[in-house]
């Protein structure tokens, strides 16, 4: 099989714009939550903004949500206010406002809003990430934030107030790459996210996969087909993630090592999964389709668009109507 051709089809069938109606619903709900936060906190909050995969153009249509970063002023919760107070205050507000229309839950550094299915069966997910400016009245200049860790996040203990980061620097980390390299990086990040979504509740965060993909490109001369580039990234993860000297520096804070967001066991699991995947694909190329499946909902449309199935006399089954 042509492995690169299959991977290109995987990416096409997972394009977020193929779920434009659902995307529009997420944007509308994100704007609603943003306005609610601004109305509640007034002059104590800077304008919340979208981050994550949608902002970086790496989203996929089988599992995507919106990350809404909410930057608070240093003294928003009193001159002696803590990050824990900030986090709990935002949670209490969101719970009171949305408890009848969404599941509101505390997550590692965010507060998750999963709105109940609407009349069309669509579920909207918004993750609100409260952050407090690092230096008094300096956020507009340096964009540095401190995040609160609600429960254990890799090697970050629950209650930790030591995650300093710059979300906009993380977003620009991809946007500022050379055009050709950026395209390859984004494709591979999408493929890894598809692999992760196919695994279910996998501990490795998408941001970790994003940074390690970029690091692979920074440390290797990556050429060849899409499959060859992906293979290089998979091999790099396999060979390096468990190394005790391996670091994955947050582009938003050079003192923040994203390798700490995984436990030793989770790193071993990730390395082992890469090793097994590469071996299975080497044994039988068709196994690539198991690890990187096309989105069946749009697979038939792509086949017709590319000249397959049309006028062949073979009926094309209707697409699945579920999302994710």
Provide an overview of this structure:
This protein has about 325 residues and is of the alpha+beta class. The protein has a single domain (about 5-285), classed as Beta Polymerase, domain 2 (2-Layer Sandwich). Helices cover about 45% and strands about 15% of the residues. The protein has 12 helices and 9 strands. The chain has helices spanning about 5-15, 20-40, 50-55, 85-100, 140, 165-175, 180-200, 205-220, 225-240, 265-285, 290, 295-305; strands spanning about 50, 65-70, 100-105, 110-115, 125-135, 145, 165, 250, 255. The strands form 2 sheets. Strands 1, 2, 3, 4, 5, 6 and 7 form a 7-stranded mixed beta sheet that branches. Strands 8-9 form a two-stranded antiparallel ribbon. α7 (about 180-200) crosses α9 and α8 crosses α9 (about 225-240). The longest helix has 22 residues, at about 20-40. The radius of gyration is 21 Å and the shape is globular.
